[in-house]
Amino acid sequence: MIIVVLGAITWYLLKENNNQTSIQAIEAEYAFAFEDTASVTKIIITDKTPGRIELTRENGTWKVNGKYEARPDAVEVLLETLNRMSMRNFVPVPSQETIIKRLAVYGKEVEIYVGDKRVKHFFVGTETPDQTGTYMMIAGASQPFSVHIQGFVGYLNSRFFIEEELWRRRILFGMDKENIAQISMYFNGDDAASFRVDGTQEQPVLLDWSGNAVQNPLAVNMNIYLGSFRTASYEGAILPTDGIWAKRDSIRMSIPVFELEITSKDGQKKSMKAFRKRPDQEQIGDEGVPLEWDPSRLYAFLDDGRMVLIQNFGLKNIIVDKYFFGQELVIDN
Questions:
Q1: How would residue 23 be classed by pLDDT, with cut points 50, 70 and 90?
Q2: DSSP 3-state assignment of 243?
Q3: Contacts by 67-74 with C-beta closer than 8 Å and gap 24+?
Q4: Strands 108-114 and 42-47, how do they pair?
Q5: Whole-structure pTM over 0.85, yes or no?
Q6: 71 to 68, 169, 290: CA distances (angstroms)
Q7: Checking CA distances to 158, which of 7, 115, 202, 288 falls within 20 to 30 Å?
Q8: What is the mean pLDDT of residues 84-100?
């Protein structure tokens, strides 16, 4: 009797242990989230194009492929996604083989590191038919899952992009006012509105386009102008996948609206040429006539060859003429 009882107990415990192991194994296959994102030091995303992006945290700052500072907003969204995403539902067995094949062809491989240790390794696929989830599969798992962020309606694969230019921080100049030696701003066909700034003097000197000093510019306006070059940014990069890319050479050969060049005290030069942009959709002017040009945005080419989209409002303290420095400004609170 004792042997029978002990045997029954052993069988029960083994059965329960196997059940626990099976449950844990299944749960491990959809454990996509990583809670401690503050400890993440490297994220690698690759696809079959082949494309590859490597984000690394260096002294508290995220870098793109070891070359450029990454966009803080994009990194924050990615880290939040890694922290909050969870399994939405199981994938029906008849669909699993098709989804696994699509993951192999169209999926993006994601690797998360803490120090030198890889802590997460999974694949991100396409969105579900209802576009409220994203197919994902942990490396080595037996099946894919539909993944989402609770409370968010939409898919997550767009957050795992691999275009370097889109990860790059959208700073135009990144130059402190104390380090500015020279600025020239030329408005095409309007020498009177064009100007230069000499920052090598104890106090910055405003010059007209002929090189004559402009008398009594307002110091607060000059301070606002020079201070804007540190954080001035563009709206977005123009990529080969954008329709306008095919026309970039003809745009560059047209007459620019303005040409801006800035030189630092250590000799570094940065420049920007801006060109008119057609409206994305019909816009009617004050006189009831459709506008030929977009009144709020311009295309711009930077000194490193990049083509970007800029906003007049976002650069309102940069895209100024000579008369700006004599105007009483209304300062936003």
A1: low
A2: helix
A3: 68/164, 68/167, 68/168, 68/169, 69/168, 69/169, 69/171, 70/167, 70/168, 70/169, 71/166, 71/167, 71/168, 71/169, 71/170, 72/169, 74/166, 74/167
A4: antiparallel
A5: no
A6: 9, 4, 36
A7: 115
A8: 92
Amino acid code (one letter) for 118: R
**Cα distances (angstroms) measured from residue 217 to each of 151, 185, 328:** 53, 16, 11
pLDDT tens-digit profile of 219-246?
999 999 999 999 999 999 999 989 999 9
Q: What is the pLDDT of residues 285-316, one digit of tens each?
A: 777 788 889 999 999 999 999 999 999 999 99
Average pLDDT of the residues of the chain: 89
Cis peptide before 50 (omega within 30 of 0): yes
Residue with tokens 């026309």: 247
Residues 33, 142 contacting (CB under 8 angstroms): no
**Mind listing the pLDDT tens digit for each residue in 246-273?**
999 999 999 999 999 999 999 999 999 9
Sign of CA dihedral 246, 251, 253, 254: positive
Amino acid type, 174: G
The residue among 57, 64, 137, 60 whose CA lies nearest residue 95 is 137
Q: Which amino acid is at 166?
A: L
